Amino acid sequence: MADRGTVxxxxxxxxxxxxxxxxxxxxxxxRMPYPDEESIAVAFSTQSHHAGSFAVPSEAWIRGEPGQQSxxxxxxxxxxxDDLHVVGRQGSVTDEFTAQVTAATISYLxxxxxxxxx
Length: 118
What we know:
- By secondary structure, the chain is α+β, with helices and mostly antiparallel strands.
- It has a single domain, classed as Roll (SH3 type barrels), CATH 2.30.30.
- Helix content is 18%, strand content 36%.
- The chain has helices at residues 95-109, 112-117, and strands at 6-11, 21-26, 38-45, 54-55, 61-63, 71-81, 88-93.
- The chain has a seven-stranded antiparallel beta sheet with strand order 4-6-3-2-1-7-5.
- The longest helix has 15 residues, at 95-109.
- It starts with 5 loop residues before the first strand and ends with a helix.
- The mean pLDDT is 88.
């Protein structure tokens, strides 16, 4: 499977046309139960109107920077199977940017902050 920080092309859950993939940032690592077969990824977008999205700065791209500004949606999560979903690779981003996005994703799943305020 793609390494953590790799940007892959896979199906777009917001479109009904299966031939219309979108980029996804792989945020999982080797601790996945089947790391050679699947990974957890978050969606990319070209839309900046999503509150909480992360703009991907040029300096975060290691390779494969697209021609327009991209944003990561850390709450739009998918499990991608390499042989079924991934149809290509865009490039990769830095470990630091991937860690920032991963922390935001985890914050949506962690109930401890909510529990402390109740």
